[in-house]
Fold this sequence. Notes:
By secondary structure, this protein is an alpha/beta fold. It contains 13 helices and nine strands.
Amino acid sequence: MIVLDSHCDTPSLMIKGLDIGLDNKDCHVDIPKLMAGGVDASFFALFTAADLSPDAATKKALEMLASIYDAIGEYSGKIALAVSPDEILANKARGLISILVGMENGAPIQRSLSLLRLFYRMGVRYMTLTHNGDNEIADAAHEGKRWGGLSPFGREVVDEMNRIGMIIDVAHVSDRTFDDVLSCSKAPFVSTHSGCRAIASHPRNMSDGMIRAMADKGGVIQIVCYPVFLSEAYAAVYAISGEAALPRPSVEDVVRHIDHAVNVGGIDHVGIGTDFDGIEVTLDGLENISRLPVLFDLLSRRGYSDDQIEKIASGNFLRAFRDVISVSSGLRG
């Protein structure tokens, strides 16, 4: 089966000198770990913090994108760029791991649809509309005070992402922004790294209503591997201590969220988005991407069939990806 991780923040480390060709002890994702984990495709996120100026955000995104291209050039015998599901399959047939590019926070496009299109031409295939702060596009889960959902420009962004075939990611948006995307988008959309609010009531997690509505539109919730989003009890301790506490949540907690999302949205609308290299503490038993097979083994022991595990591993996300491309083709005529 194809194994796809829809979100890691490794480019933030790459611009600081991380060599992903090495097995590094201080990161969660690199080529040796991807190979050991049987990962066929990984979305590398261009993350920009909410406190950066527009120009600084654009510059940092370009620096991260350049570092990805440099690594692909240096390790062309092991990894390759992919911009579509078909390219992921073609790369796997050649024995190569696919590196895809997402953008976490729409700030780098500033207020320019031309910049949005340019990032698409350079390989960016999803954009998380916000990070932890409201921006020119929309309100974020951690603030949610500026626009009351999507801004007027944000509605143009959604339309243009639909038209060009870029996946809309609602992982960090406010509930009202989610509702606006649901009503405005002509294509399915995803949450690339979230949990279930019914289990852990973090504002970054998705309510049952959101999971169900996104599924009804053909979208997918990619379950995150961040302990703070998976366990409400752990999040409370972490908020007080400010550092990793023991005991940590485990792979079992990921499966709890997968089970819940499957029960609410259906088996065709759940996947995996680790958030590795963007999290301060990892799960017990899932310390880096090389340990991902432990999750699939546990799903199998819990009674998931091979076909169901394949859907969670990549099939659901790739189907939504293809649907976004199909909608784009229709809109372009």
